[in-house]
Amino acid sequence: MKYILVTGGVISGIGKGIIASSIGTILKSCGLRVTAIKIDPYINIDAGTFSPYEHGEVFVLNDGGEVDLDLGNYERFLDINLYKDNNITTGKIYQHVINKERHGDYLGKTVQVVPHITDAVQEWVMNQAKVPVDDDRKEPQICVIELGGTIGDIEGMPFVEAFRQFQFKAKRENFCNIHVSLVPQPNATGEQKTKPTQNSVRALRGLGLSPDLIVCRSAKPIEMAVKEKISMFCHVEPEQVIFIHDVSSTYRVPILLEEQGIIKYFKQRLDLPIDDHPSDLLMKWKKMADRYERLLKVCSIALVGKYTKLSDCYASVFKALEHSALAINHKLDLMYIDSTELEHSTEVENSVRYHQAWHKLCKADGILVPGGFGIRGTEGKLQAISWARTKKKPFLGVCLGMQLAVVEFARNCLNWEDANSTEFDPDTKNPVVIDMPEHNPGDMGGTMRLGKRRTVFKTQNSVLRKLYGDEMFVEERHRHRYEVNPELTHCFEEKGLKFVGHDTEGNRMEIIELENHPYFVGVQFHPEFSSRPMKPSPPYLGLLLAATGTLNAYLQRGCKLSPSDSYSDLSDDSSPEKETS
User: Fold this and answer.
1) Is the peptide bond before 115 cis (omega within 30 degrees of 0)?
2) Are residues 247 and 301 in the same domain?
3) What is the DSSP string of 388-420?
4) Which of 5, 84, 98, 359 has its Cβ near the most Cβ atoms within 10 Å?
5) How many domains are there within the chain?
6) Whole-number mean pLDDT of the chain?
7) Residues 57, 330, 528, 559: which is the catalytic one?
8) Residue 581 lies in a domain
């Protein structure tokens, strides 16, 4: 097993996740089996109870793990399926060690950070690195490990010490450290500054780790003189200094790394049995990056949510939309709309925001209402759903978005004025959305209906079934504690809102579709978590096709999306043509 540790310096959020994912993509393109581990030094057991404004979205894995969004980057870039133990937190490690102490495994010994915590980290990494993550179920050959935070953070010290020890346990030819640092360029002078990187590398060396590669992040391409300066002061060869500047899309990052000789370096440094040049996989990435930058046609989607101030809150949703837009040769124009601003207010400032929000909603080609929790902003989401239904705008509701679509239909089409979800009104006379008692025991963390579950189509007359390749069932990831009330579904179906997908027992409503509408679809699951750059998610692809007026033509031509479809099937010359009236 070869281990590649990715650390960061100067600031957090510098792009370690994209760098780690890109390195994994390059090595996978060379024919190696790659897995990934993300270490988060916070004390939380998992990311499930975070505010989206703290760490962005909560990414959900097949096994129900609620993890850091960087694992979503790994899965999308590497096209693998990870597990909850691929996300290590301080809370998990301490819980593991304390459980062993209570069990009596350390009898007679004082339990300390060194060696017990550091040993637990090393054992966890070695065990998890062997777990197969590809469909062929073979053991990985490379494990890319990202250490969250920045070097010098007090909470990250035990992990740094664990890898200081681990580099000797694994041996030099099996362990490599990549340090990602910032090269700022102040507007006052316009000069690219190397001192922050020098200080960061010095701090890393002081803790016992020496970087094999220094990846320098910058706003603009870095000059050769800066590279030579970093090489000299950070005690590495010039070819060990890699530059990654801000690019138009993350698809370009693996290409930039490969162009700077990273394959040749890894081959020599880790004694890898690979060629100096990548396979067709990286060429597909290059083609995808080139294609992304050439797109001229634009499709605008309004995302109506309550965490719109931070785009990372909907990272997977954005990526799923982007994958689908790229597949049909359109550039995505994603407009974030705060759902509270769609709710009318008499205050002047809020009134201006109200009109601006509605202006964006009205000019969008399609509308998306994603998942969420809590009552704030739900009335605005209901207004957006009502607009999409009555004005025949393509609409996709995900999780809470689907539940609110049912609430809106009950209020405005069934005339149940007080219809609601028991999440927002426990005493409603028409509880069209109810809680699931077995998934609501009182604790907040890890108690929802989580992970991959099967949805069975109950009819062939379903747009989503056709988009999924006319399969009898699909398996997607869930994260919810409330569901559509199954006792009332017949009332909706009589009026045209069809529940076309159920769980395997037929009790839980998974998919809704509205008759006589270009595309009005709701799903209880989160299809964005399984979307891949070269395998776009069918519900999101359907929204983009409908928003560009090409859905019917696409279906009539029999273009089915399934896991066996390759990205080449979605090349430029196979793009559906615009429908004519």
Assistant:
1) yes
2) no
3) HHHTT--EEEETHHHHHHHHHHHHHTS--TT-E
4) 5
5) 2
6) 89
7) 528
8) no
Give me the pLDDT at residue 65, please.
92
- Find the mean pLDDT for residues 57-84: 93
Q: Annotated catalytic, 526? A: yes
Neighbour-count burial of 506, counting CB atoms closer than 10 A to its CB (0-12 exposed, 13-18 middle, 19+ buried):
exposed
Residue 316 sits in the same domain as residue 241? no
Question: Are the CB atoms for 37 and 128 separated by under 8 Å?
Answer: yes
H or E stretch at 233: helix 224-233
Nearest residue to 397 via CA among 332, 317, 283? 317
pLDDT confidence of residue 569: 41
What is d(CA 359, CA 91) in angstroms, rounded to the nearest whole number?
45
Q: Does 146 share its domain with 246?
A: yes
Tell me, what amino acid is at 507?
Answer: N
Place of tokens 């004082």: 110
State yes or no: pLDDT of 563 exceeds 70. no
Q: What is the DSSP string of 554-567?
A: HHHTT----TT--G
Q: Which domain holds residue 177?
A: 2-290
Question: What distances in angstroms separate CA 562 from CA 452, 488, 513, one per listed residue?
Answer: 17, 33, 20
Per-residue pLDDT averaged across 194-222, rounded? Answer: 93
Known catalytic residue: 528? yes
* pLDDT (tens digit per residue) in 389-414: 999 999 999 999 999 999 999 999 99
Statement to judge: residues 171 and 68 lie in one domain: yes
Q: Is 577 exposed, middle or buried (0-12, 13-18, 19+ CB in 10 A)?
A: exposed
171 and 317 part of one domain: no
Question: Residue 344 belongs to a domain with what CATH number?
Answer: 3.40.50.880
Closest to 386 in 3D by CA, of 371, 366, 405, 372:
405
Residue 63, amino acid: D
Length in residues, the chain: 581
Helix (H) or strand (E) run with residue 194 in it = none
Q: Please tell me which residue in 30, 216, 399, 559 is annotated as part of the active site.
A: 399
Query: Residue 28's CB: how many other CB atoms inside 10 A?
Result: 24
Selected catalytic residue, list 408, 483, 526, 559: 526
Same domain assignment for residues 170 and 315: no
Q: Is the pLDDT of residue 576 over 70?
A: no
Q: Give bridge partners of residue 35 from the DSSP assignment.
A: 143
Amino acid at 437: P
Widest distance between CA atoms in the chain: 81
Do 272 and 32 meet the contact criterion of CB atoms below 8 Å apart?
yes
Residues 203 and 342 in one domain: no
For residues 145 and 212, state if they share a domain.
yes
